[in-house]
Amino acid sequence: MNSSIIIRSLGILIMLLGVSMGACFVLGEILISNRPGASAVDYIGWWMSILITVFTGLAAYGFGKYKLKGKSKNVDNAEPRILRREAITVVGLGWLLCSLFAALPHSLGADGVSYDKAIFESCSGLTTTGSSIYPSVENLSQTKLLWRSMTQWLGGMGILGAFLLIFSGETRGKTLLSFESSIHGADLSSTDLRTAMRKLWLVYSFLTLICMLGLWAMDMTFFQAINHAFTTTSTGGFGTENDSITSFSDNIKLWLIFFMMLCGISFPLYIAMWQKKSVSIIKRHEETRVYLIIILVSSLILIIGHYINGTNVSEIDSAFNVVTIITTTGFASGDYELWPVLSKQVIMLLMIIGGCSGSTAGGLKVSRILLWMRALKNEIIIGFRPNVVLKLKMNGKAVHPEVVTSVFVVVSLAVFFFLLGSIIISLLEPDLTAMACSSAVLSCICNIGPAFGELGPSGNYSGLSSPSLIVLAGLMVLGRLEFIAVLVLFSRRLWKKY
Question: What pTM, to 2 d.p., does this model score?
Answer without folding.
Answer: 0.90
